[in-house]
Design goal:
ABCA, Alpha-Beta Plaits, lipid transporter activity, alpha+beta, 4-stranded antiparallel sheet, ABC-type transporter activity, ABC transporter A family member 7-like protein
Length: 99
Amino acid sequence: MKGRYGGTYVFTMTTSSDHEKDVENMVRQLTPNANKIYHLSGTQKFELPKEDVKIANVFQAVEVAKRNFTVFAWGLADTTLEDVFIKVARHAQAFETLS
Protein backbone atom coordinates (compact mmCIF):
# COMPACT_ATOMS: atom_id res chain seq x y z
CA MET A 1 0.00 0.00 0.00
CA LYS A 2 2.81 2.38 0.88
CA GLY A 3 4.52 1.54 -2.40
CA ARG A 4 1.37 2.35 -4.36
CA TYR A 5 0.30 5.54 -2.58
CA GLY A 6 3.49 6.69 -0.89
CA GLY A 7 5.64 7.83 -3.80
CA THR A 8 6.43 11.15 -2.16
CA TYR A 9 8.75 12.79 0.30
CA VAL A 10 7.27 15.12 2.88
CA PHE A 11 9.18 18.41 3.10
CA THR A 12 8.50 20.79 5.98
CA MET A 13 10.05 24.21 6.58
CA THR A 14 9.44 26.84 9.24
CA THR A 15 10.40 30.46 8.61
CA SER A 16 8.88 33.79 9.49
CA SER A 17 5.56 34.38 7.75
CA ASP A 18 7.32 37.02 5.62
CA HIS A 19 9.24 34.30 3.78
CA GLU A 20 6.44 31.83 3.05
CA LYS A 21 6.42 32.81 -0.64
CA ASP A 22 10.22 32.36 -0.81
CA VAL A 23 9.84 28.81 0.51
CA GLU A 24 7.07 28.05 -1.95
CA ASN A 25 9.22 29.35 -4.83
CA MET A 26 12.16 27.23 -3.65
CA VAL A 27 9.98 24.12 -3.58
CA ARG A 28 8.54 24.87 -7.04
CA GLN A 29 12.11 25.09 -8.36
CA LEU A 30 12.80 21.64 -6.94
CA THR A 31 9.70 20.27 -8.66
CA PRO A 32 6.70 21.97 -10.23
CA ASN A 33 4.72 18.88 -9.20
CA ALA A 34 5.00 19.64 -5.48
CA ASN A 35 1.76 19.65 -3.55
CA LYS A 36 1.36 22.07 -0.63
CA ILE A 37 -0.37 20.20 2.17
CA TYR A 38 -0.69 23.09 4.61
CA HIS A 39 0.79 26.29 5.90
CA LEU A 40 0.31 27.82 9.32
CA SER A 41 2.25 30.62 11.02
CA GLY A 42 5.34 30.22 8.88
CA THR A 43 5.34 26.42 8.81
CA GLN A 44 4.69 24.86 5.42
CA LYS A 45 4.43 21.23 4.46
CA PHE A 46 4.74 19.88 0.91
CA GLU A 47 4.60 16.52 -0.82
CA LEU A 48 7.45 16.12 -3.31
CA PRO A 49 7.19 13.30 -5.88
CA LYS A 50 10.17 10.98 -5.41
CA GLU A 51 10.69 10.59 -9.16
CA ASP A 52 11.15 14.38 -9.50
CA VAL A 53 13.47 15.09 -6.57
CA LYS A 54 16.99 14.15 -5.55
CA ILE A 55 17.64 14.42 -1.82
CA ALA A 56 20.96 16.17 -2.46
CA ASN A 57 19.13 18.92 -4.36
CA VAL A 58 16.80 19.47 -1.41
CA PHE A 59 19.77 19.88 0.94
CA GLN A 60 21.40 22.34 -1.48
CA ALA A 61 18.19 24.37 -1.78
CA VAL A 62 17.85 24.54 2.00
CA GLU A 63 21.45 25.73 2.38
CA VAL A 64 20.82 28.51 -0.16
CA ALA A 65 17.59 29.44 1.64
CA LYS A 66 19.44 29.62 4.98
CA ARG A 67 21.83 32.16 3.47
CA ASN A 68 18.93 34.32 2.24
CA PHE A 69 16.58 34.22 5.25
CA THR A 70 16.22 32.66 8.68
CA VAL A 71 15.09 29.04 8.63
CA PHE A 72 13.86 28.04 12.09
CA ALA A 73 13.41 24.37 11.25
CA TRP A 74 13.10 22.05 8.29
CA GLY A 75 12.73 18.37 7.59
CA LEU A 76 12.53 15.85 4.79
CA ALA A 77 10.88 12.51 5.44
CA ASP A 78 9.64 9.52 3.55
CA THR A 79 5.87 9.18 3.43
CA THR A 80 4.66 7.47 6.60
CA LEU A 81 2.05 4.75 6.64
CA GLU A 82 -0.22 7.20 8.49
CA ASP A 83 0.13 9.69 5.60
CA VAL A 84 -0.84 6.93 3.17
CA PHE A 85 -3.94 5.97 5.18
CA ILE A 86 -5.04 9.61 5.38
CA LYS A 87 -4.61 10.03 1.62
CA VAL A 88 -6.56 6.84 0.86
CA ALA A 89 -9.33 7.84 3.28
CA ARG A 90 -9.63 11.30 1.68
CA HIS A 91 -9.88 9.78 -1.80
CA ALA A 92 -12.51 7.32 -0.59
CA GLN A 93 -14.48 10.11 1.08
CA ALA A 94 -14.32 12.25 -2.07
CA PHE A 95 -15.49 9.27 -4.15
CA GLU A 96 -18.45 8.67 -1.80
CA THR A 97 -19.39 12.35 -2.01
CA LEU A 98 -19.42 12.21 -5.81
CA SER A 99 -21.45 8.98 -5.91
